[in-house]
Design goal:
321 residues; two-stranded antiparallel sheet; 14 helices
């Protein structure tokens, strides 16, 4: 397919808030990046996109894939430029004019590579497996992430994100968009750490008891949240770390944990639960960061039980983790 490199770039939907776009505007305001220089830079990025297209696109008639590779080229170049200039627009104009575009693209590719590898690893491996003594029963494994987090993990290898901020457990998502700034990468890194920390938390729980529950947790929309709420309900009602609940157990738990008059979670039972999981994980020599995340995760599960329509980001402060 014969296609102008520049027309490909011109037709792409590039995020004007990206650092590269802001650098171009700033350079124009300084009189250092005119239309001719802008076109040369666009042609250089288009050349990078064509290399990506050659490597990753099988059907050259698929314009959505072509535009996706153009956006990836811009996104990685923008990240590399922001990193190389430390986010300073004056310096960014200087280094953009003094270096080949491919240099910034390579930096951006390096910055995102580890995140992509970690997202793919979690998507493929973040499950808890039944203990060996139950393997003969053909029991399904239980995923660590919920549906919204699966969408998030799936988007990252395409250099896209579905979140605007990190969340203890992803509750709110957006349409996938290219990540163009270093702050996007930091949010993604934090979210991946949260999911990984939840995996560590669940691995400390007694797996044989988790897999003996009927119906199985593997069919739940958010398995780990369900496991956690069941555990909290049994601890509160029966003072036993059990995962099986009767039909009315969770409602009885809500009656204890929630004050109808104040419309708030009662502090005493909440504190007892958070102290229980903190002490439990400490016995297994979990790190302070892992324990801190688990405590915040338990708190977010409580919030979701009482305020199911709420935004957990607003109701639970993200831990310094």
């Amino acid at each position: 397919m014969q296609t102008s490199k520049f027309s490909l770039v011109a037709d792409a939907n590039i995020d004007g808030k990206s650092f590269l776009a802001r650098t171009m505007v700033h350079g124009d305001s300084l009189g250092r990046i005119d239309d001719e220089k802008s076109e040369v830079l666009s042609e250089d990025i288009a050349a990078l996109a064509h290399k990506l297209i050659t490597m990753k696109v099988d059907d050259l008639s698929d314009t959505s894939q072509l535009r996706s590779q153009i956006q990836t080229s811009f996104a990685l170049t923008s990240l590399g430029l922001e990193y190389g200039s430390k986010g300073n627009l004056d310096k960014a104009v200087n280094v953009l004019l003094a270096n080949p575009i491919v240099k910034f693209f390579q930096i951006g590719n390096t910055l995102t590579d580890k995140l992509i590898q970690k997202a793919s690893h979690l998507l493929q491996n973040a499950f808890i497996q039944p203990p060996e003594e139950l393997e003969h029963l053909d029991i399904d494994s239980i995923r660590i992430y919920n549906f919204a987090e699966a969408e998030f993990l799936n988007a990252i290898p395409s250099y896209k994100t579905t979140i605007a901020s990190s969340q203890i457990s992803i509750n709110n998502t957006h349409e996938p968009r290219s990540f163009n700034t270093l702050s996007d990468l930091e949010i993604i890194r934090q979210q991946l750490d949260y999911i990984e920390a939840r995996w560590t938390y669940v691995q400390a729980l007694p797996h044989d008891e988790i897999f003996s529950v009927d119906p199985p947790f593997s069919i739940a929309i958010d398995p780990i949240q369900t496991i956690t709420l069941n555990l909290m309900a049994n601890l509160t009602l029966y003072f036993q770390p059990d995962f099986q609940v009767e039909s009315d157990t969770v409602e009885d738990f809500k009656d204890i944990i929630f004050d109808e008059k104040t419309r708030e979670i009662r502090s005493a039972p909440r504190q007892r639960l958070l102290e229980w999981i903190e002490n439990y994980l400490a016995q297994y020599n979990r790190s302070d960061d892992e324990i801190r995340y688990a405590v915040n995760y338990w708190d977010s599960c409580l919030q979701s039980l009482i305020y199911p329509e709420s935004n957990l980001v607003e109701k639970v402060c993200n831990p310094d983790f």
